[in-house]
Amino acid sequence: MGALDYLISNFCTVPSTKTKAMQTVEIKVKMDCDGCERKVRNAVATMKGVKSVEINRKQSRVTVNGYVDPNKVLKRVRRTGKKRAEFWPYVPLHVVSNPHASGVYDKRAPAGHVRNVQMFPASTETADKFMSYFSEENVNACSIM
């Protein structure tokens, strides 16, 4: 029985397949004509796992829905000759908490969109540290002055 169990466990198992999650990939691609649009659409639509491809030439935006790897989609778009293709860097204006901070506004962005920049609030640890020196709970507050 030991040899039979070994053979079954090593040679009769079905390899596990990793399924990719359904996701939406948005890419910024400059397309000047119908030929450019058709070339990008055909390149992306023939990929395995792609369910739909939407192209908005006015915004220079390609949206791909399906079970795909975002990096492979970007690589496929770049192989069509669009070397400046990048992931969609813009978000709607109402999503950003401070849309007029430096680095957020981009005049090439479509109407109603700004660049997606992560803004981190300033650290308040040092402010809290200095405020504790002059608080009423600090019995040595007068010795500092």
Automatic annotation (TrEMBL):
Q: Which family does it belong to?
A: Belongs to the HIPP family.
Keyword field? Cadmium, Lipoprotein, Membrane, Metal-binding, Methylation, Prenylation
| InterPro entries associated with the record | HMA_dom (IPR006121), HMA_dom_sf (IPR036163)
Gene Ontology terms, cellular component aspect?
membrane
Q: Which domain of life is it from?
A: Eukaryota
Q: Which GO terms describe its biological process?
A: response to stress
Please name the PANTHER family in this protein's record. Answer: COPPER TRANSPORT PROTEIN ATOX1-RELATED, HEAVY METAL TRANSPORT_DETOXIFICATION SUPERFAMILY PROTEIN
Q: Where in the cell is it found?
A: Membrane
Q: Which organism is it from?
A: Canavalia gladiata (Sword bean)
Tell me where in this chain the HMA domain is found: 22-85
What molecular functions are annotated in GO for this chain? metal ion binding
Q: Which Pfam families match?
A: HMA (PF00403)
- What name is this protein filed under? HMA domain-containing protein
